[in-house]
User: Fold these one by one.
Assistant:
Number 1:
Amino acid sequence: MASTHGAEVLVASNRGPVSYEVRQDGSLHAKRGGGGLVSGLSAIGPHTDAVWVCAALSDADREAVRRSGGGRRLSVDETGGQQVRMLDIDATVFSDAYNGIANSALWFVHHMLYQTPLEPVFDAEFRRQWASYEAYNRAFAEALAEEAAQGAAVVVQDYHLALAPRMLRRLRPDLRIGHFSHTPWAPPDYFRLLPDDIAAELLGGILGADRAAFLTQRWADAFTACCHAVLGPGIPSGTRIGVHGLGADADFLRERAHRPDVAERMAALRAEIGSAPGGAARKTIVRVDRTELSKNIVRGLLAYRQLLDDHPEWRERVVHVAFAYPSRQDLAVYRDYTAEVRRVAEEINSAYGTPDWTPVVLHVKDDFARSLAAYRLADVALVNPIRDGMNLVAKEVPVVSDAGCALVLSREAGAYEELGEDAVTVNPYDITGTAQALHQALTMPDGERTERTKRLAAAATALPPTQWFLDQLHALDA
């Protein structure tokens, strides 16, 4: 099934490097995506024939596929000239696979989010959706098999495509296949909430790769432990296990954070934050997250309220700048969570606010320039996820901060493995402990905060996105 003009390097992910919109005149407009994969694939150079296989996510994406003739590659200037193969997967199959299985089952397992007295329920509907998840993965495997040159390197991304490596291996045993997990991996006792056959299929799917890689050693060890618990001792396929701790892109962040639109946002934020009684600058506690259940935004707000109770001297002298950008609003549980974030923030402002002080400045509309402005202004960054594969915000804030920033960091974030020594560490469930950590961070001496920030920034940028991707390709060559 090798293509006569096959690609030497292929990336597969649910979301691709480009998205489309149909303009009023009927023309298609392509917009380049961000992130480490886009930068990394561009870094392999224009002389390497590379293809990115992804799903069409919108009606405009599907229109772009139709106009290209269906199963053909799209050549898009916005991706640096890289080739894209976008798959127009049946809408019901896609919804079942993406919302029903990937985001409502696998994400919940790996982030340990279930309220187990009531959920999960793996019934006939789940089995129907699982069949769609298999079909979705098969579509990717078949497209990759068609596009790849003999002996090509294929890097499959994340929990959406856990079955694809083994499916692809059966179609094209000549390929060098890697799988990378961007989420945590659940420990065996929690992973085995899944039906036994499904758990075995997921593990076996990833073990179809030559190499399975993770963001931290903790998640890699959990995967290995699950293999032993579900499939028996050893890794029978001979799959190698690797770790690549994705870092922040320092050059991009520092350049982007000093553009005029960020300066405008900083001025607006300073006006919202205001000044403390007597005219002194107020301290800022900054968080930037999607309203993802695992990010623990509500407990962060409750900890801030506890800080105001335990240390009333901070009233009118600190502001919690909370950017909570809506995520997965097509799922009811996420809409409810976003509403709860709003409710708690409003409750704090109502209980503690004064005519001259709004304790919580909450924004729920995504604005990257405003996020960078908050990074630069932050005295304290609050990153308290219940569980997180890495958490790049924890790495980005120290890189961008103007005057140094104390990092309050959950021990359940993957970033803790690299940053924990210079952060103020918290148990994400402990409201009182997190409030104490916020006080410690707010009162940290300037010199100590500056030195910690330098060390945090160095650790955060140790493996920038381009090198992170190239390291995975080189490891497949080993």
Number 2:
Amino acid sequence: MNAAPQEITSLVGREVYSNNGVFVGEIEDVRLDLDAQAVTGLALAELNHELFAGRVEGNTGVIVPYRWVRAVGDVVLINDVIERLDTGSEENEAEVGQSA
């Protein structure tokens, strides 16, 4: 089945949940690779403060690698971010940075 393409901006404002049903945050922006014409990350704000306690403070957000995305619909499902954050591996951690 080929779904009709959607505009990237349609992702903004959608809630993001782990595949275990844990609320992660809300999409504020997307990271693009213009050469590959692909989405490479989702910038999240309105974060689940319990999930990111000690990692994100104040007006910061995270960028979740798009490769973690499992499904996009009314909400976006990603691989279980809690397990990835607990590994301590820099390669698997979401990037922490200032939200615009």
Number 3:
Amino acid sequence: MTATTSARTQRLALIALCLPFFVVQLDATVVNVAVEAIRRDLGGGLGGEQWVIASYTVALAAGMLTAGSLGDRYGSRRICVLGTVVFGAGSALCSLAPTLPVLIAARTLQGIGAAALLPCSLALIVRQFPEPRARAHALGVWGGIAAIGLATGPVAGGMLIALADWRAIFWVNVPFAALAIVLTCRYVVESPPRDRRLDPYGLVLGTVALSALAGGLIQVGRSGWALPLIAAGVLAGVAFVAVERRRRDPMLPLAIFSSRPFSAASTAGLLFNFCFYGTLLCLSLFLQGPLHQSAYATGMLTLPLTVAIGIGATASGRLTARFGARVPMLTGFSLAGLGAVLLAAADSLPLVVAGGVVLCCCSIAMPAMTSVAMSTPPEEHTGLASGVLNTARQTGGALGTAVLGTLLSAGSTMSLSVPMTVVALGYAAAVGCTLLATRRRPPAASAVREGR
């Protein structure tokens, strides 16, 4: 194989692994501008609208640890392709859904497929690009494309609804999924399978904990089941930790969190998605509610946000290569916090758009954050580490949608002030996590202790 052919194969492999992640992230936010059209067609109130979004993110978050473990055991490419097939099938079912419960069930199936492909695609990138500089570049592209997918969702959703109807936002996933399957099978190198036993107890308890907690937060103020669900989620979470401590081959080896950079970067990822997913939902509802914008207008108004995301994600790789991960992470989270403050005080359309643009500079932080997290685990645990990182992020997304959506509608009228204040505090906490993740140990510490 010539150098030119090898470089072409690597580029196509990277496209194959980035393409499904782009669509997965796109689907996490494309529905935001469609919820009003879905409600008019299929019925349901704000709680139903939140479940159309949360059913996807909850299933996505709950399945990724298992998917990472399955990828390590059976081969990441095999699980990635299987997940892409399930995601495409779930998308087709969403477009055909006759009722709201059927749509929510199909969205859950989408989330399960996304949970299988997302951590495995990241693990495959780590294996496909073993050279550190090439790997850093590939991770930057992967993270940047994901951020663009998140921000492109509202724009694409608004255009598709205007040209057709809300069902089109799901049909468009099918050809992308088919192309990703073909490219992955042809150009991506399979990872060697490893002997790891499954952990059904961890799977069940982790899924129950996340699902019950997110469901309870969505139902706060709307149902008497809210507090029991939250309590069940907390108890299941405690039981999950207790079981994982005692199992010989746990789904989530808690020792992985002994690495300070990994733990802090994963926590930053949770905060990132909590704030970002929740903000995009709040902006969509606020624009279509108090500001009386159509779905198409809402999509067009978020176009500057998409541009900011693209510029930030592109700049992140160059900043990381030149200054390390700390500078882009601190820059991205600080600008995002400033944007949240502007949005909290926004009372007009220009201020909402301006605040959203500044907040979307958070994309500067995401590729660098991923690079920090994936640089610490050993090669045999790349699938698991990817699953942990992405589970943390998608858990944040599910909780952000539930919490911030509820805070937006908590008063007699919709207001951005309370949810955006929470977002500003979340990004401030992410700055603290960044300082922990990128802090270097004093190089001479051991020498001082030994008297050298």
